[in-house]
Amino acid sequence: MVLELRRGFFLSFSLSDTPHYQQDVPFKVPDNWVWATIEEICSKIGSGSTPRGSNYAVEGIPFFRSQNVYNDRLVYDDIKYISDETHQKMKGTEVLANDLLLNITGGSLGRCAVVPADFNRGNVSQHVCIMRPILIEPEYFHALILSSYFSKSMKITGSGREGLPKYSLEQMTFPLPPFAEQHRIVAEIERWFSLINIIENDKYDLQTTIKQVKSKILDLAIHGKLVPQDPNDEPAIELLKRINPDFTPCDNGHYAQLPDGWTITTLKDLCENINGLWKGKKEPFVNVGVIRNANFTKDFKLDYSNIEYIDVEQRTFAKRHLINGDLIVEKSGGSDNNPVGRTILYEGESGVFSFSNFTMVLRIRYNDTVLSKYLYYYILAKYQTGAMRLMQTQTTGLHNLILDKFLLMSICLPPPYEQKRIIDRIETIFTTLDAIMESL
């Protein structure tokens, strides 16, 4: 049985030569297409071998292993080389331009790359199979290998993590169009992939823009530029003085720039700070969930999915349980790119969870002076502008928050009613932006 190639078209099999897969095909194809096995469309199918004694060279001829084969390209990171002498002894595993390299074992089973047309020469290990197409456009063949049809075919053959047998690979069938149509299909695939890449880039750009918009919204909010002031609101300073007659507003040079009704205070004036707990040593114990740094999400929310439960002293938990409205602050941890000082707002049930010794809690002293959610957004705005980088120190690779600096951070405080309007406005805008983000 022979496939004849004439003027770029594949001729159909004669009826007497029609194999079983032409009679019982997976799906119907156009009239000028045929079904063929990989064995019939390749002049070579075979895996490589590793040089005896792993006889690699510092430089020379590239030796590709499975970690060098990716779906979109050959990766030269961690590439090995062999000498020309070794290459001559392994001529049977030589890689040529336009070959397809297919990973046939391990976790990367099925990963496949086309060898570039300007490639010189190389070799492959026993974990990589060379397929040398002769009656098929390499890029079309590559698209077939990466298709869900090929993945399903591998499962049908029983191929698993242990590998894809050569015989099973050779007998896999493919729909084969004329050469001209193969080229058209490849051109369409490349066109659509190009559009997808543009969309993906635009999506990334839009996601970045949304993050920047959120940061700008918070910046406007803490400077009194997000919602209008109401002259009927009681000034924040009057409220603070009524609660604490000894209150003195901070004077750091920005006071004159404050909107009407606003004042400047500090975290220390507004909140008490409570350090996190260690595991208990004395009975009686209580088993409770402890909020750790690992429960802080990238968007400064609380992740309940991996809360750790430990035994803590009952008397300690009574002093260090979370209350709805607490702000949990990361005081140790962080990294060069993400300084400590990340803060999340606890909005769960009071008396259920505690918090680790790598964190601390800010608890509002007087609920009618500042809304915890306003303070959360304020600290978030400061964090996103890099303020916390000036409030951290590093010891033994661990970033630590300088508590005195953090607690003395200036807070621009509007009247409570304006705080509520600011929160509502932020959350209305953020809800819209989140909906856009989720639709991408």
From TrEMBL:
SUPFAM superfamilies: DNA methylase specificity domain (SSF116734). One of its GO terms (biological process) is DNA restriction-modification system. Transmembrane segments: none annotated. It comes from the Bacteria. Keywords: DNA-binding, Endonuclease, Hydrolase, Nuclease, Restriction system. CDD domains: RMtype1_S_EcoJA65PI-TRD1-CR1_like. Residues 30-201, 259-433 form the Type I restriction modification DNA specificity domain. GO terms for molecular function: DNA binding; endonuclease activity. InterPro entries: Restrct_endonuc_typeI_TRD, Restrct_endonuc_typeI_TRD_sf, Type-I_RE_S_subunit. Belongs to the type-I restriction system S methylase family. PANTHER family: TYPE I RESTRICTION ENZYME ECOKI SPECIFICITY SUBUNIT (PTHR43140:SF1), TYPE-1 RESTRICTION ENZYME ECOKI SPECIFICITY PROTEIN (PTHR43140). This is Type I restriction endonuclease.
